[in-house]
Write a structure and sequence with these properties.
By secondary structure, the protein is α/β, with parallel strands linked by helices. It is about 35% helix and about 20% strand. The protein has 2 domains: about 190 residues, HUPs (Rossmann fold, 3-Layer(aba) Sandwich); about 100 residues, no CATH class. The chain contains 12 helices and 11 strands. Helix 4 packs across helix 5. Bound molecules: iron/sulfur cluster. The site of iron/sulfur cluster has 9 residues, from helix 4.
Length: about 325
């Protein structure tokens, strides 16, 4: 395992740190390294969060990072959240537990000793209070090897600590939302430039969650193209029930066209004037196709006149039609 900062001395123990790339996960890693533990950072990727910040932060502290695909795990938890959601469609308690479980499988599979997290008692009112931390420990199935270095002294001693694989005496008793102690610790480790949190999670965003809820209710969470498209464009639920996605800029237009190719979408584009790529569910009714074409014209740059609109299915041009613009205010009630 790479950079542990302990020279050639044998490590006290080996383990994995759940690593979002935020300050707390960096500190958890550094606290364990300082006492001679050999740690590997583990980050998770899914359509809702990326390991980009984890990569940067791991490089900043010279830690090895392993990225684990978490797509199936998080989709199943959004479908059936045992402990419910936070403010959006974020099943945080279940998600934490599952991440620790996955890291635990890796640790046990490799004969390592512990899983650590950067959780801080009472830092987040819902997902990091004492009850939630206990629930996570119970659900993850690896409570015996779980260490939370930043708050360990406020939590029950674990088997790993009892066995001396991690020195509880050198773990911390940080609690609450103030970041003062973490900032002092960051100074102790010579960290000056660090993010306060990891990369962010779309599931905590209300608007994004509203759009995802539609897919969830339609049983389409496993349609990964549809899930990934939620990040792009303005989304309209048309009167006939189909969903139209209208690109907001050239970058989005191109990305959406690329993603639509295999997703069974109709692609609607203006010809001869700048305007948005618009995607429409392939099963849309003819009325919704008309509305989507007018919507596309309405967001195109052609004053109040007719706009030539082309409609494609994959690479095949289905038709070209002069189209009357739909005033944007008329479409506003359909905006998700
Ligand atoms: S914010 Fe997102 S990634 Fe983090 S625990 Fe909650 S659901 Fe999981």
């Amino acid at each position: 395992m790479g950079s542990d900062g302990i020279g050639s001395a044998p490590p006290r123990s080996r383990g994995a740190v759940l690593f979002s790339g935020g300050l707390d996960s960096m500190l958890a890693c550094l606290v364990l390294r300082e006492q001679g533990c050999d740690v590997r950072c583990i980050a998770f990727s899914s359509p809702f969060f990326s390991p980009a910040q984890a990569r940067k932060s791991a490089a900043a502290i010279g830690a090895d990072l392993e990225v684990v695909d978490f797509t199936e795990d998080i989709l199943s938890l959004v479908e059936h959240p045992r402990h419910g959601f936070g403010g959006g469609l974020n099943p945080c308690i279940d998600c934490h537990g599952r991440m620790i479980m996955r890291a635990g499988e890796i640790v046990r599979g490799r004969g390592w000793d512990f899983v650590a997290t950067g959780e801080v008692l009472n830092q987040r009112p819902m997902s990091q209070n004492r009850r939630s931390l206990e629930m996570v420990a119970k659900d993850c199935g690896v409570a015996d090897i779980l260490v939370r270095p930043l708050s360990a002294k406020l939590l029950p001693e674990t088997d790993v600590e009892r066995a001396g694989l991690v020195d509880r005496g050198r773990l911390l008793a940080i609690e609450g939302r103030s970041r003062r102690e973490q900032m002092a610790l960051a100074r102790h480790f010579g960290l000056s430039d660090y993010p306060s949190s990891g990369g962010g999670c779309l599931l905590t965003e209300k608007l994004y969650s509203n759009k995802l809820a539609l897919l969830r209710n339609a049983g389409r969470l496993r349609d990964l193209t549809a899930v990934r498209l939620l990040k792009f464009g303005r989304h309209f639920l048309l009167p006939g029930g189909a969903k139209a996605i209208v690109g907001r800029n050239v970058t989005e237009n191109e990305a959406m066209r690329g993603m639509a190719e295999n997703g069974g979408y109709l692609v609607i584009r203006p010809i001869g004037v700048p305007g948005p790529t618009t995607l429409l569910d392939g099963t849309a009714t003819p009325d919704d196709v008309d509305v989507a074409a007018r919507l596309c014209a309405g967001y195109s740059d052609n004053g109040d006149g007719l706009v030539n609109i082309r409609i494609f299915k994959g690479a095949e041009l289905l038709e070209e039609r002069p189209t009357q613009r739909l005033p944007r205010e008329e479409a506003r009630p359909w905006l998700l």
